Amino acid sequence: VKEPIIVGFIGVVFGFTLSRIGFTSWDEIHKMFTFSDLRLLLTFAIAVTLLTISWIVVARATGATWSPRRVHPGTVVGGVLFGAGWALSGACPSIALVQLGEGQLGAGLTLIGIVAGNWLYSVVHERYFRWSAASCVDA
Amino acid sequence: MFNGFFHSKASAAAALVGGGVLVGFGTRMAAGCTSGHGLCGVSRFQKGSMLSTAAFFGMGIVVSFGLRFVL
């Protein structure tokens, strides 16, 4: 019963942080990709470092394990397509929601695109690919 | 900057919708995004995540520099 409230609160903190560090700004993302400002890359590196420590601490304390993320046929191609889309729209999936929350109305168009792309992939996958890939959600 | 690249409303809308489609298709195909692969996967040294993250960061760099030549 309490879980949705806790998860929702974490989401609010996550969105607030993403907004404050400038990860929701097209211009900042462009500066990151063209190395004209290394700040966001540094932020990313710090986040990864903190997470590495966190996984170890949580695993030691609770004995929790997490499912592996193996290489599958969509790993590189999907990544390449996503990278192109990120550089064009200035948004990765959760960012589009945060942008909308900030009042960047153009993010509504990005969200429509994301939903359409997701649906399109499910159709293409069903018809042509059919390989198994771990879900985006690995609890 | 965004307006500097995409002068008209039509080109800006095309970049957002088109980019969004690529984001939706690509993240689903790679089974992960910046959070899933880039943060959670890389921090656990998962091979699939490190490969996918290298791919999307690499392509992001290519396309961002490419915009300067095309637009």
Summarize the structure.
The complex is a heterodimer of chains A (139) and B (71). With 139 residues, chain A is mostly helical.
Describe this protein's structure:
The complex is a heterodimer of chains A (139) and B (71). Chain A has helices at 3-20, 26-33, 39-62, 74-89, 93-102, 107-129. Helices cover 71% and strands 0% of the residues of chain A. The longest helix of chain A is centred in the middle third of the chain and has 24 residues, at 39-62. Chain A is mostly helical and 139 residues long. In chain A, helix 1 packs across helix 5 (93-102). Chain B is mostly helical and 71 residues long. In chain B, helix 3 packs across helix 4. Chain B is elongated and about 40 Å long. At the A-B interface, helix 2, helix 3, helix 4, helix 5 and helix 6 of A face helix 2, helix 3 and helix 4 of B.
Give the helix/strand layout.
The complex is a heterodimer of chains A (139) and B (71).
Chain A: H1 3-20, H2 26-33, H3 39-62, H4 74-89, H5 93-102, H6 107-129
Helix pairs in contact in A: 1-5, 5-6
Chain B: H1 2-5, H2 9-30, H3 34-41, H4 47-70
Structural class of chain B: mainly alpha
**Percent of sequence in beta strands of chain B:** under 5%
Rounded to an integer in angstroms, the radius of gyration calculated over CA atoms of chain A is 17 Å
Helix content of chain A: over 70%
Approximate strand percentage of chain A: under 5%
* Quaternary form: heterodimer
Topology, number of strands of chain A: 0
Described by strand count, sense and barrel closure, the largest sheet of chain B is: none
What structural category do the secondary elements of chain A indicate? mainly alpha
Query: What is the succession of H and E elements of chain A?
Result: HHHHHH
| Terminal-residue CA separation of chain A | 18 Å
Provide the helix percentage of chain B: over 70%
